[in-house]
Amino acid sequence: MKRIVLAGLMMFAGMAAQADVTRHPLPNNSTFPIAQAVEVTSDTTMIYHSGQLPAVANPDADKNSREYYGDTETQALSVFKKFATSFENLGVGFGDVVKMTVFLVGDPELDGRMDFGGFMKAYVLYFGTEEQPNKPARSAFQIAGLARPNVFIEIEMVIARP
Asked: Which pLDDT does position 11 carry in this prediction?
């Protein structure tokens, strides 16, 4: 009897945890991998994660060169790997992300335009996949610059932990 009650409580807890976050899809059956909005109940713990910059991609390159941090895709992959490590320490995952803000610096090799496509190549490996279908609400901005030369991306996230 205790096992049945415990199993029922565990099932209820799992259902309650899923009910704490509601992701509203984009209209018109859009397949773009973001949510139009994400709704979070008041009993959910919110984690506001500071922005992450990429790690050095090629330590042998000149610190002021593009090769030192890599292109936007390389930098985005590095940032997501840093989040993965931090998330593990926090006991959350990419499926718990409810809001993401992406800051992109214009790439000189793209006539000063942000490389949104390079960012998206990394992003779609972590969000809206078969393994991790949850999509956050997201904004992306081109900005004039970040704290380090040739850094093209900084990402900050808001995570909901039921």
From this structure: 38
Q: What is the pTM of this model?
A: 0.86
Residue 105 burial by CB count (10 A; 0-12/13-18/19+): exposed, middle or buried?
buried
CATH assignment of the domain containing 104: 3.30.1330.40
Q: What's the total number of domains in the chain?
A: 1
What is the span of the domain harbouring residue 74?
A: 2-161
- List the one residue out of 47, 141, 74 whose CA is nearest residue 101: 141
Residue type for 33, please? P
The per-residue pLDDT for range 38-93, each reduced to its tens digit, is 999 999 999 999 999 999 999 999 999 999 999 999 999 999 999 999 999 999 99
Chain-centre distance for alpha carbon 14: 23
Note whether 93 and 87 are within 8 A (CB).
yes
Residues pairing with 7 in the sheet: none
